[in-house]
Amino acid sequence: MNTQILAVAVAFWLVAWLVNTWLVGLRPTNGFVAKTINLMIPLLFGVALLVLWEGVIKGFDVSKVLMPAPSMVWARITSSVDILWADFYQTYMKAVLAGYAMGCGSGFIAAVIVDRVPFLRKGLLPIGNLVAALPVVGIAPIMIMWFGFDWQSKAAVVVVMTFFPMLVNTVAGLTASGNMERDLMRTYASNYWQTLVKLRIPAAMPFIFNALKINSTLALIGAIVAEFFGTPIVGMGFRISTEVGRMNIDMVWAEIFVAALAGSLSYGLLALLERAVTFWHPSYR
Amino acid sequence: MLERRGFSALLYDRIVPIGVVVAVIVVLWYGFAVLLNAQFERDQAARAKTEITTSQLIERTLSQDRPLLPAPHQVVSEIWDTTVMKKITSKRSLVYHGWITLSSTLLGFLMGTVLGISLAVAIVHSKVLDRSLMPWIIVSQTVPILAIAPVIIVVLNAIGISGLFPKALISTYLSFFPVAVGMVKGLRSPDVMHLDLMRTYNSSAAQVFWKLRWPASVPFLFTSMKVAVAISLVGAIVGEMPTGAVAGLGARLLSGSYYGQTIQIWSALFSAAVLAAVLVMLVDLVSRIVLRRMGMAQ
User: Is there a contact between A221 and B262 if contact means CB atoms under 8 Å apart?
Assistant: First the structure.
């Protein structure tokens, strides 16, 4: 046991905590400084967490089979960029993106149809709500049986996983425009499609983006878990399940890091897009 | 449109539309079962050098041993066979596997709810935690947590912790998030007037918490618990996969996919669906009762 490293890590954690306490107490008048501080606080917290992790692993001499230190994971990431990129390409660029686009697109179209036909709204929506709460990843073995081992079956799982959240949210969003606004559109003599495109879909955008954000995480989970059931010898889920078997836990964490990065980046991208599209929404003004 | 009330409302707004949609799904399902399984039967007939009539073809496609898509009645009879007809302790009983999944779901859900509430309480009461921890809680959910499931299970197995707890841990990881976010919102939901009123009563932080913040957050708690319970079931099912498919609904799915037992996959899937629906409904029921007793029901 190496008490020195442990002590340094804990001390770093405490100092970071104190600095954060001090930062929170500041009342900057300058907008830019305030923004920087807002970013600094979580960043410092994350760094302190990493240092503590490293310290605990090194300090207690935890076996690298159980839990690798962040520095080891980083070394593994930099030394096997090509494998990570191939896996990322197979899982994310092929399966996730295709499935995400098809699932969200068809969910949106279905929602417009459901909204048009009240009978379907009464009949299909409760079922959609139910399915949205179900363990949909379970269909992965069936999809692999139908669509083969390659990325098509993973995309199919992603389609089914993302369809229902999109459907439910968009239907809720299409009712979000107020009566006054709809009456206004009527006085303009606009028909159903004009009202839909110019009023109701823009008004539904916050709901649609909510579904898009939920789905961005779900899609990645769906594709990775589906690869546990069978896949060609490339892919993030494949790598995770085989490297766990070979006790190369640092490689697993490297894949997890890539997945986390991809998930966070797509989430952030969607958040930026949402800001651009729903600039009129009260929460951004 | 005219307003319907009471039973006729239930009939026309609920039972008839949902029934029709379900019926359409079942009919489509039969159609696809015939369509997808037909190729296999045609091949069989060609190999045996016999001709089969259409009615024979349809009949056989709906009663294959390992169909590409089992017909609904096959799934139903498989579920009936493996729940009612088998002893509960038997390893072939779905009740046995369902119970294993359910117990880790419930344990994980409980731990996740407690963790979520404690995090929310800490975040609401500490400005530092709010600014430093909250962004990371949100980032933690953009990580596909389920991908870590095999790691957690294998690692915990290596240090001698196995069985229920590792699976429950995955459910905890998934379910704490909606509870934490919902409770932070809920604990902040009392408006400034009420908080000011508590101040004029000279009440302490603990009193404000127990008499104002906590009661105000209960509706938020139940809403997020509904999400959390469904998501912990998913966590438990995925958690059962990498351990070598020993027991539980996830193990049934995996072993079914290894041996091409499609009917077994579908019956496991259906029982998982029923389990999820029952769990969500139970939480909903409890929330209705509690909210009514608290005088908050609409």
Answer: no
Residues of A in Cβ contact (< 8 Å) with B250:
138
Which residue in chain B has the smallest CA separation from A17? B128
Pair (A147, A44) in one structural domain:
no
We report the CATH number of the domain holding residue A209 as: 1.10.3720.10
Chain B residue at shortest CA distance from A265: B142
- Contact at CB, B233 and A135, closer than 8 angstroms: yes
Give the span between the Cα atoms of A77 and A253, in whole angstroms. 9
pLDDT tens per residue across span A18-65 = 887 787 777 777 778 777 877 777 788 888 888 888 888 887 777 777
Q: What pTM, to 2 d.p., does this model score?
A: 0.79
Contact B241, B166 (CB under 8 A): no
CB–CB of A91/A237 below 8 Å? yes
* Side chain identity, residue B73: H
Chain B residues inside the 8 Å CB shell of A24: 127-128, 131
Cα of A116 vs its chain's centroid, Å: 30
Domain total in chain A: 2
CA atoms within 13 A on the CB side of B274: 13
Question: Does B76 fall in a domain?
Answer: no
Residues 6+ apart with CB under 8 A from B136: A42, A45, A46, A49
Tell me, yes or no, whether A144 lies in a domain: yes
> Which residue in chain A is spatially nearest to B153 when comparing CA positions?
A244
Q: Would you say residue A68 lies in a domain?
A: no
**Has residue B217 been placed in a domain?**
yes
Same domain? B14 vs B103: no
CB A235 within 8 A of CB A112: no
Distance in Å, alpha carbon of B170 to nearest chain A alpha carbon:
14
Q: Report the complex ipTM.
A: 0.72
* A133 contacts B277? CB cut-off 8 A: yes
